[in-house]
Amino acid sequence: MSAVPVLTQQQGVTHLASIVGTEYVSLRGEALVAMPCDQQQIAEILRFARANGLAVTPTGGSTKLDWGSAVAPAIMVGMERLNALREHAWQDMTCTVEAGCSWNSMQTILQRHGQMVALDPLWPDQATVGGIAASNDSGALRLKYGGLRDLIIGMTIVLADGTIAKSGGKVVKNVAGYDIHKLMTGSFGTLGVITEVNFRLHPVEAHARTWTARASKGDAVAFEAPLRALMDSQMSPSSVQIRTSNQECAMDVRIAGAPACLDAYGVRLQGILGGMAVEESNEAAWRSRQDLYDERDSLILKVSMLPSEMCTVISGWQRWASEEALTFTSVAQATGLVTVAIGQASDATPTIIDRLRSRVTERGGSVVAHRIPEVLRSEVSVWGPDADTLPLMREIKQRFDPTRTLNPGRFVGGI
Fold it and tell me: pLDDT above 70 covers what percent of the chain?
């Protein structure tokens, strides 16, 4: 269990039980799982781990534990008991939520006042607020409302030495202190344990429709001009995505507005898409990114690129996958974030990832492997080539967690 031989597993169990209670300590493989009920207990766990040289991994719904480089923690801090929506200032359109609250549970409460956190992450029924913030997950709503760093206005964090820190505040316009919560967002639990998040809210999109257009030749490049025209139009779509496979390609557009205007939006969209067949779809289209992850045997990659490059690059991938007899599927958001799934690729995984990276990085993008065959984890760089910012990132890790207690090695460059 421990990197320190003199500390036995039973000693670890006994100490953690003295902090959180015997019924809230368990074993998961070689790791001890402790479930604290408040920030003070988390602080005590981290102080104990730091003093004994033990690695700690915070967990929520465990939906993204396989993202990033592998970690073998001695202690897993389960956030299940910190699951309340602590404050909903609906007049100010803000809320404060504990990190262990599931995304759907939070949204259900907010919807009572016709409000929402305008984000559509993966597995919202299981994923927790803290895990979503730590992994910086977002979906197609990012086009209209921005990502998590735009929606989070404050945060409470327990640092590796047990210090409880607050960043930001509970109002949208706030200039108090540094935006440490933006640093914590997407840090994969390597800088601190997120315990509470303050969000800015938006009205629920009560009236919205989704239209789907299909490219006749199944080539993503067919949507390049229509997508540019849509983004330049006076319409403000909530979400736009392009779904592709080896031979098929479709574009989904979701627009919210007054019921009387939605028919007119459909007509204008048909004009932008020219001669393509356009049909009204249901909300199932927006689950297509999650569907890729639910195919457990696929290689899953998250690709970032310029939106203007997206259609051309994906079209090239389609042709390459067909030539190599690979099963290729992708879901691309209009913001330039693309999820790629490649089936039957175990033996060729390193070559596939290297080839995709060479095509994307030369255009200023990146490729992160979210799921790769376990036997190839030691051969494949999950995060890709080291960025120029890596020395700065390492210095930040050194300042926040000099003893490398929190998720050591999980993030870019082995941070």
Answer: 96
